[in-house]
Amino acid sequence: MSKTWDDNTFPMAYLVTFRTYGTWLHGDKRGSVSRHQNRFRSPRLPENSVMEHQHASKLKSPPVRLDAKDRRVVENAIREVCKHRGWHIHAINVRTNHVHVVVVVGAIGPDGVLRDFKAYTTRALRNAGYWKHEHSPWVDGGSNRYLWNEESVWYACDYVLNGQGDDLPNF
Asked: Which of 15, 65, 92, 152 could serve as a FRET partner for 105 with CA atoms 20 to 30 Å apart?
C-alpha cells in the first residue's frame, strides 16, 4: 500500500488545466464556479440559460475551438517553455477547448507555470497566424492541482492521457 501523503516542502508535480476562451460560461448546463463560490468540492452554480446568454453576449470574439494545427502549436509551445525553464512534462493533452499538463517545476508555485503556459502558447498561436485578436485565447485563471506523491502523479497522468475521450483527428 502506498503512502497517501509525503511531507514534502513542494509538490512532486502539478496538474495544470486551462480552458479556451468562451467555451464554458456561467449558466452552462454543466454548472460553473464563480469567484465567490470557489472552494474545493463546493457545489457548482446550476444551469441558468438567461445567465449563459448574458455572458455569451459579452464575449469579445466567438468561443475558441482548437483544431489540429492549433493543438500542435499549443503543445509545441508548452514543450518549448518547459525546455527553456528546465521543467519536466509527465503528460500533456491539448484538446479542442482545454489543455491538461502534468509538470514538475521544482520550487516554484503553479501560478507562474500557468502564466508562462498561456503566454508562450498565445505568442506561438499569434506567430503562426492562428490568433489575431487582442485578447487572450484562454480564459482568466485555470486549475493548479498539487500532486504530493507518486500515486497522485500516476493518477493525474492516467487522467490526462486516458481520461479525455477519444483521440482527436490530426487533420
From this structure: 65
Backbone φ and ψ of 19, nearest 5°: -105, 155
Q: Which backbone phi and psi does 4 adopt, to 5 degrees?
A: -100, -5
What's the one-letter identity of residue 37?
A: Q
The CATH number assigned to the domain with range 13-21+64-162 reads 3.30.70.1290
Following DSSP, what letter does each residue of 61-100 receive, concatenated?
A: SSPP---HHHHHHHHHHHHHHHHHHT-EEEEEEE-SSEEE
* DSSP string computed for 104-167: E--SS-HHHHHHHHHHHHHHHHHHTTS---SS-SB-S--EEEEE-SHHHHHHHHHHHHHSS-SP
Pairing of strands 143-147, 98-104: unpaired
pLDDT 10s digits, 14-45: 999 999 987 766 656 666 666 666 566 666 66
pLDDT tier at 116, thresholds 50, 70, 90: very high
Backbone angles phi, psi at 20, to 5 degrees: -80, 155
User: Do the Cβ atoms of 147 and 153 come closer than 8 Å?
Assistant: yes
Out of 2-6, 84-88, 143-147, 155-159, pick the least confident: 2-6
**For the chain, what are the domain ranges?**
13-21+64-162
